[in-house]
Amino acid sequence: MNANVPVKVKAVSASVGVSQAMVSVFLRDVRVAFRQKQDLLNPLLFFTMVVTLFPLGVSPEVAFLKQSGAGILWVAALLSVLLSLDHLFRHDFDDGTLEQLMLQPQPLFLLVLAKTLAHWILTGLPLVLLTPVLGLMLHLDGNSVATLCLTLLIGTPVLSLIGSIGAALTLGLRSAGVLLSLLIIPLYIPVLIFGTGTVAAAAEGAQVSGYLALMGAFLVLALTLAPFASAAALRISLSNS
Amino acid sequence: MWQFFHKLGSPKWFFGIANRFMPWLLAGGLILLVAGLVWGLAFAPKDYLQGNSYRIIFIHVPSAFLAQSIYIMMASAAVVTLVWRMKLADVFVKSVAPVGLLFTFLALFTGAVWGKPTWGTWWVWDARLTSMLILLFLYGGVIALDRSINDEKSAARAVAVLVLVGVVNIPIIKYSVNWWNTLHQPATFKLTEKPAMAMEMWVPLLLSVLGLYLLFGWLACLRMKTEILVRERRTRWVKELVLAGRK
Amino acid sequence: MPEPLLQAVGLECERDERLLFQNLSFSILPGTVTRVEGPNGSGKTTLLRILAGLNDAWTGDLSWCGKPRDQHRESYLRNMLYLGHRPGIKPLLTPLENLRALMAGRRPLNDDALLQALSGTGLSGFEHVPCRNLSAGQQRRVALARLLIADEPLWLLDEVFTAIDASGVEAIESLLLQRAQEGGAVIVTTHHDLNLPDMGRITLGVGPSDEC
């Protein structure tokens, strides 16, 4: 290579722009996920199975399912996201790509945001797409299913974003999975309440745009704050390893 | 500036201050609390609706107050931990989290006991009680995370992040639980909404709240002192202190 | 004397209630190779992670080109290459994809340059094989390929010789020397018997031992 040419200290501007770095992180995560397709299917299978437990465990009566269907689907989706969060940073942590990510001359919170978005595309979005099928099995009417899908579409990214904080905090700890759930479930409650509440309001024929706007506000808040908290938590967890 | 904060956060300095204040906190707290409780339980007038059962508020309300303000105090300390890395702030958060959990539990328990004569059932999914239950979960998470991380400094910083995330969420949780409550059951009874309370009820309540705050201050100092002794057991001043105490 | 690239003054690190080092000061001048030495558990890896900026549980002062390092984090990261214990290679991706991802946030190169670097580490013919099908040594070579295309003046290398065969070791040694000659600086930890001319040393684990 370029022998005896003195290596110089470079200005930061000599590195690539942050948007390009984010795209690269995002694409890498998507590519890795598609090489391990089972990991993509697991949350969906889990989602379906949890939903199946309710008619079996409580009651298959149409009246019950109609009334509780939205709640069941929301809880099942929440648990599926929770289940998949453990992987968000763990593989990267184990193989050392996470430390290389943190050493990129880029703002860490934006790289974390890119990873979290990839997580949502790979787990949250498929759950939303599967929801209409399960909604029909729970005898929800078309209007409810549509509202439900909308609330999940706005709500699942919030779940991924808040969850990323928990995943970062518990990285490298014993029984991280259980601990992650303990830390994160209380923080999921508002999203769950408004997600199911919106569907209930729609079923009563109320105007739901206000509720959806409120959920949108949750999403904006999570988008602006969660990446900072996750990045801070990652620094702490990596310091400790 | 940094140096000043460093001194302020010095465990040894705190030890001296705590020793000076603790007797006052304990005495003041006990006097106020006993006065408040005796007045409230024995002398305050009966409630015209609930009879004597309302008297549990003299324990319930102070506990609920403390349960919430301890979390806020922990969040303030968490900011100090993250920004200035002050040891004392770490010690504070770690020491008072279980106390916060205890008061939250006490508030829930007394709420349930109060619920039995008032609603005829131990538990009602009332907005206040549900928010308290979630607060209990938040405290539980903080304690669980703290215990799962071996390294003291990492644990303190991780917990600080979690507490701050929690404190941002508390108003959102409260708001959404209130909304959920109105959605599912029209407000019939509310734990806090009482027809204008008589002065004879207010004063003892205020006394017991103040008393419990002072007692919390005493308990926090005590727990922090213990935690500091454990953490600083290798330093010279702790060794000297322990040796001096033995003589 | 040229300005040191990296300067540490009074570093102290305590981990799990054990004091790893205290009052550690050194300067890394351009044109040098420095080896961090010490018995197992003396904090070699921790020191390298502190220098890289991955571990921030330390006290003291670290300056980069005369300025406080933590206030010039991005500039520092842009000019520092860290290879850790864990190679930073995704088993599901091919060497080429891995290298591309590692370079993407710093200095994207075209595939030709990356392929050339891979063949330079003896991975010709494996460029498109998923890394989980490669041996441990080959996986490490993927990470090491970055040294062939690195423009960062400061290298922090933690146990880079692990799982590398004799000819590979020789090649890496000459790369380290070359970087020093070009005016860069290298800090390494290794169990391998590394002995380069004019090698600096930072020795850990000789300070006050644990008191009970």
From TrEMBL, chain A:
<keyword id="KW-0201">Cytochrome c-type biogenesis</keyword>
<keyword id="KW-1133">Transmembrane helix</keyword>
<dbReference type="InterPro" id="IPR026031">
    <property type="entry name" value="Cyt_c_CcmB_bac"/>
</dbReference>
<keyword id="KW-0813">Transport</keyword>
<keyword id="KW-0812">Transmembrane</keyword>
<dbReference type="GO" id="GO:1903607">
    <property type="term" value="P:cytochrome c biosynthetic process"/>
</dbReference>
<dbReference type="Pfam" id="PF03379">
    <property type="entry name" value="CcmB"/>
</dbReference>
<comment type="function">
    <text>Required for the export of heme to the periplasm for the biogenesis of c-type cytochromes.</text>
</comment>
<dbReference type="GO" id="GO:0005886">
    <property type="term" value="C:plasma membrane"/>
</dbReference>
<feature type="transmembrane region" description="Helical">
    <location>
        <begin position="40"/>
        <end position="58"/>
    </location>
</feature>
<dbReference type="GO" id="GO:0015232">
    <property type="term" value="F:heme transmembrane transporter activity"/>
</dbReference>
<keyword id="KW-1003">Cell membrane</keyword>
<feature type="transmembrane region" description="Helical">
    <location>
        <begin position="209"/>
        <end position="234"/>
    </location>
</feature>
<dbReference type="InterPro" id="IPR003544">
    <property type="entry name" value="Cyt_c_biogenesis_CcmB"/>
</dbReference>
<feature type="transmembrane region" description="Helical">
    <location>
        <begin position="145"/>
        <end position="171"/>
    </location>
</feature>
UniProtKB/TrEMBL annotation, chain B:
<keyword id="KW-1003">Cell membrane</keyword>
<dbReference type="Pfam" id="PF01578">
    <property type="entry name" value="Cytochrom_C_asm"/>
</dbReference>
<comment type="function">
    <text>Required for the export of heme to the periplasm for the biogenesis of c-type cytochromes.</text>
</comment>
<keyword id="KW-1133">Transmembrane helix</keyword>
<feature type="transmembrane region" description="Helical">
    <location>
        <begin position="127"/>
        <end position="146"/>
    </location>
</feature>
<keyword id="KW-0813">Transport</keyword>
<dbReference type="GO" id="GO:0005886">
    <property type="term" value="C:plasma membrane"/>
</dbReference>
<dbReference type="GO" id="GO:0017004">
    <property type="term" value="P:cytochrome complex assembly"/>
</dbReference>
<keyword id="KW-0997">Cell inner membrane</keyword>
<protein>
    <recommendedName>
        <fullName>Heme exporter protein C</fullName>
    </recommendedName>
</protein>
<feature type="transmembrane region" description="Helical">
    <location>
        <begin position="201"/>
        <end position="222"/>
    </location>
</feature>
<feature type="transmembrane region" description="Helical">
    <location>
        <begin position="21"/>
        <end position="44"/>
    </location>
</feature>
<keyword id="KW-0812">Transmembrane</keyword>
<feature type="transmembrane region" description="Helical">
    <location>
        <begin position="158"/>
        <end position="181"/>
    </location>
</feature>
<feature type="transmembrane region" description="Helical">
    <location>
        <begin position="96"/>
        <end position="115"/>
    </location>
</feature>
UniProtKB/TrEMBL annotation, chain C:
<dbReference type="InterPro" id="IPR005895">
    <property type="entry name" value="ABC_transptr_haem_export_CcmA"/>
</dbReference>
<keyword id="KW-0472">Membrane</keyword>
<dbReference type="GO" id="GO:0017004">
    <property type="term" value="P:cytochrome complex assembly"/>
</dbReference>
<protein>
    <submittedName>
        <fullName>Cytochrome c biogenesis ATP-binding export protein CcmA</fullName>
        <ecNumber>3.6.3.41</ecNumber>
    </submittedName>
</protein>
<keyword id="KW-1278">Translocase</keyword>
<dbReference type="InterPro" id="IPR027417">
    <property type="entry name" value="P-loop_NTPase"/>
</dbReference>
<dbReference type="InterPro" id="IPR003593">
    <property type="entry name" value="AAA+_ATPase"/>
</dbReference>
<keyword id="KW-0201">Cytochrome c-type biogenesis</keyword>
<dbReference type="GO" id="GO:0005524">
    <property type="term" value="F:ATP binding"/>
</dbReference>
<dbReference type="Pfam" id="PF00005">
    <property type="entry name" value="ABC_tran"/>
</dbReference>
<keyword id="KW-0547">Nucleotide-binding</keyword>
<keyword id="KW-0378">Hydrolase</keyword>
<dbReference type="GO" id="GO:0022857">
    <property type="term" value="F:transmembrane transporter activity"/>
</dbReference>
<dbReference type="GO" id="GO:0016887">
    <property type="term" value="F:ATP hydrolysis activity"/>
</dbReference>
<feature type="domain" description="ABC transporter">
    <location>
        <begin position="6"/>
        <end position="212"/>
    </location>
</feature>
